[in-house]
Amino acid sequence: MRASATRSAAGDPWPFGLAAAPGLKSDLSVFAVVLVFYVAGASAAWHSFGAPAGLAFFPPAGVTVAAMVLLPRRRWWLVVAAIVVGEFGVDLANGLSVTISAGYVAANVVEPLVGASLFLRFTAGDTRLDRRRGMRWFLVAAVGAGPLAGGILGGATRAAHTGDVWWDAAFHWLIGDGLGVLVVGAPILVMRGVAMPRGRRLREAVAALGGTLILTVLAYWVSDIPPTILLLPPFVWVALRFGAPGVLLVGAGVAAVANVATAAGRGIFAALDVSPQTELTAGQLFLVTMIVTVWFLAVETTDRADLIVERARQRVVLERTELRQTVGELSNRLVSAVSLDDVVRTYTSIVADRYQVSVLWLGRYDSGLDRFRVVSDTLPDTVSDEIATWTSSTPAPGPVAMKLGTPIWVSDREELVRQPESTV
Q1: How far apart are CA 390 and CA 11, in angstroms?
Q2: What domain range is 368 assigned to?
Q3: Residues 237, 379 within the same domain
Q4: Collapsing DSSP states into helix, strand and coil, what is residue 403?
Q5: Domain end position, chosen among 278, 312, 346
Q6: Strand order in 400-404's β-sheet?
């Protein structure tokens, strides 16, 4: 009844780069890929995730909704066909009647149709899950509305099959399939276009996944420590280092290990004094809550980082625009300058005033007088008076010295002489 899928090449929604091979984008290849992962996930639900005890974690729910999001609507019938064949095959092989199997088939067909349709409608095609809008509508449509629609039919089928209360069965279906969409469908979608990490970053990613899985085993199989204490810190670290793709991929591994442990009677949720079905659902609710919380942290961090980069880019554009304007204005006014005084005044009024630069210009009179002069309105009178006493034999730092922010202050002639030729 209940797959996981991977992908390799950027933009390739199918595992192991199948779409890159000639001829494998045919209808038959799409049907075969979905069917294989559907049957694998549904078999895992029956034999590893506790389906015999109740409505369990169902990975194929993520495979089917992701396939419909990635495929054009005219090819959705291939996904539907794979669901029908796969669900009937797995259910009949596990001893369910044709009538009950048909009910589960209908529920599993309706679920991705509703989830994918609403998700694409509300996102207007922008299905990026590392952004706030895509995350919000994926949770509402694919994780929420789709499994709810499937749960209405699946709960009724479960009630007819086992005598369970219909609304209770529908709720358990919603949580189990919602978790499947979250940790299988979301990673498939979020990894589109994400480059494979290399070198040190690849080693860090492998260590993050492996370390978190080891802590999951410790939390569910070895110790009685609440899973939050062991799992939340590495999850937060993954969110900050690898963003939404890292969180969702690690979440898939954690969900698989945790559900196998709970179904096997291990971990804090298996120790609850409740029915096996409630144990499964409690563990699934915990995983959904933790993964969504850390996913939100990753998305917010990414959004804020993008905002900082965008503001920096806008600042650079603004500075370049102001620089072009300054150079243009300076060029236009220098064309009409007829003397050194005009040049210096033009430079001082435009560049020095706009960029808060103090200018010290040292030069000899063109008339040959044995004196120096200072042309600047931004220097203190004491400096101007000092330089005015110089003669042709006086060592000078000229011709130009500039300093950002404040004027150049000196206490005596020796200090001024020690100034570099050009200080910006």
Answers
A1: 73
A2: 337-417
A3: no
A4: strand
A5: 312
A6: 372-374, 357-364, 400-404
Q: Among candidates 403, 316, 422, 324, which has minimal Cα distance to 356?
A: 403
Burial, 301: exposed, middle or buried (Cβ in 10 Å; 0-12, 13-18, 19+)? middle
In sequence order, the 6+-apart residues with CB closer than 8 A to the CB of 208 are 234, 237, 238, 241, 242, 246, 250
H/E stretch holding 401: strand 400-404
In a domain, 295, yes or no: yes
Looking at the chain, how many residues does it have? Answer: 424
| Cα 371 from Cα 365, distance rounded (Å) | 7
> Model-level pTM greater than 0.85?
no
Encoded amino acid at 80, one letter: V
Q: Give the separation between CA 105 and CA 140, rounded to whole angstroms.
A: 23
- Beta strands, E only, 112-156: none
Q: How far apart are CA 174 and CA 364, in angstroms?
A: 88
Nearest Cα to Cα of residue 380 among 358, 400, 402, 399: 358
**Do residue 228 and residue 82 come from a single domain?**
yes
CA 29/CA 67 separation, integer angstroms: 13
For residues 293 and 274, what is the distance between their CA atoms, to the nearest angstrom? Answer: 26
Rounded-to-integer distance, Cα 367 and Cα 364, Å: 8
| Each residue's pLDDT expressed in tens, for the chain with a length of 424 residues | 433 333 333 344 444 343 333 344 688 889 999 999 999 999 998 888 876 667 788 999 999 999 999 999 999 999 999 999 999 999 999 989 999 999 999 999 999 999 999 999 999 878 889 888 899 999 999 999 999 999 999 999 998 888 888 888 999 999 999 999 999 999 999 887 677 777 888 888 888 889 999 999 988 888 778 888 989 999 999 998 888 899 999 999 999 998 888 888 888 888 888 888 888 888 899 999 999 999 999 999 888 888 888 888 888 888 888 778 777 777 777 777 766 666 666 766 666 566 555 445 444 434 444 444 444 444 555 555 655 565 555 554 443 333 333 334 444 444 444 444 433 3
To the nearest 10°, report the CA torsion of 234, 237, 238, 240.
160
Same domain? 182 vs 49: yes
Nearest to 231 by CA among 223, 178, 57, 271: 223
Burial class (CB in 10 A: 0-12, 13-18, 19+), 188: buried
With a CB cutoff of 8 Å and minimum separation 6, the contacts of 138 are 119, 127, 129, 186, 189
